[in-house]
């Protein structure tokens, strides 16, 4: 840690980690990511936070509440970092930097929206009890833990657009304008100031500046801010249709207007109360600053709590004096602005700096949600994939299960075809096709550099079978969560594991005579019953009573049970016997055209069995998915998709 200019604390929620706003106000377990993939974990007592939080909606929370919040945050950081570097190491490094006048930042990188709502500047230091945000120069900056690579903010300040509205009272825009004009000689009030800003006038001004070849690089918005319906916060502007009445502008609306111009803008300054407040419990869908930060704006400055007018004026003057007059980078200009804020208010604790780390500074170990429209980054030779359809796979569980197999701190490519997880997905033929298509698109995107895939799957068995089939040209390890959704995963299949000559894994519960195959019109039904048996009632419901197909039943020889599949060796036996069974079907029943497949087995085995299927030599497979409410239902899968070239195990 000594010598690092940027210290990073990356925190995420252990449950539903890829749903940034899935927060209900109850105590939550969080993980911290350390070097070489090591993880720490701790519980944050949100019930205690909520008893204090309402005070911070006021300009002057009591000193007692401030101290309680600061101590609570310090204890949480001590707990979550205990197994890593330890909070004391961060604190010592920051205090040493202050004493030696060495530039050093503390970057909080969060993947859970609720963490942005906490006043981290008030964190009590164990040395002397002062607040973290009083360290000079101000070290804190914040970042969403996403995978958008954004060019860093330019060191040159560029053209400034000052937009303001007094829809809910005086904002003393003349003092702000005077401060900007004094610091930035190139600022032209006639062209670079926008009175009574609206969404339409803002878009028009940005468009005109770009057309003239002089785009704005910094957008400074001055107005009041406050709650909007639904529990989030927005900016107060005049209603263009009823100018005498204010309207609240939320982050979504502003992001839509700024989206086409986000590559022009280097920074946005929100001089407004609660511009950086992500919302109330149960309604945390992102504040204005968070929406702009996630849009890809390199730097966003906003106030998490109420911001005084004097503080806003002081910040504006010092910020532009440093940026335009001294030509320092934007973050250093923010630090200069922070230094002049009065200690008699909480403006110093409220102002936040949201930054985008340059690509070379991004740590590995990211969750990269696959999208067919977005190219994947350069992939490693051993790729980790989490297939999330019905449940999430916790990142910490993946790292623990891999035991360093895919490198020290691997990225995880998340295949989540519905942008959400739910137990009843897919529910329609259209959703099944979407899931199958997206799995195909992921495999097609792997290229030739990837030689092995580590797969963690929480998806229906037909989807696991399909993905295993598509990955049949790659080395593959498939991990299985232990019974009871414990979050503990172990390797259930390894394509490099060879079967031995031990006892058979399956017994043939049913094997029809050759004439039965001919009598059933070239159709054959096959069950693989491993972790549970398929009852006769379900079989009858599936196969029907009128001219049912012939039936082959492969049942675990030791009896179906949740523990009968003990690991990769058992899976290798099962896969080899499934392969032998298909060869026997081809030899004994050459007239069979279709095989109906019903699986009652772990997901890892379903993926492994998919690697056996060859549409060029085997009858066409039809896959069936089981749900208690509907029995076995056919999945819209033809089994005839042409595979792409790749690496063979």
Offer a concise description of the structure:
30% of the residues lie in helices and 23% in strands.
Which characteristics define this entry?
649 residues; alpha/beta; Rossmann fold; six-stranded mixed sheet; 18 helices; disordered C terminus
- SS field, number of helical segments: 18
Instruction: Bin the strand percentage.
Output: 15-25%
Q: What's the helical proportion of residues?
A: 25-40%
Gap between N and C termini, in Å?
Answer: 41 Å
For the biggest β-sheet, the strand order reads 7-6-8-12-13-14
Round the Cα radius of gyration to an integer and report it: 30 Å
Determine the structural class based on helices, strands and strand pairing.
alpha/beta
Biggest pleated sheet = 6 strands, mixed
Low-confidence stretches: 147-151, 641-649
Mean pLDDT: 89
Characterize the overall form.
elongated
As for the number of domains, it is 3
Number of DSSP strand runs: 26
What does this structure look like?
The structure is a single chain. The chain is of the alpha/beta class and 649 residues long. The chain has three domains: 6-144, no CATH class; 159-361, Rossmann fold (3-Layer(aba) Sandwich); 367-634, no CATH class. Strand 24, helix 18 and strand 25 (620-627) form a beta-alpha-beta unit. The relative contact order is 0.08. The model is unreliable at 147-151 and 641-649 (pLDDT under 50).
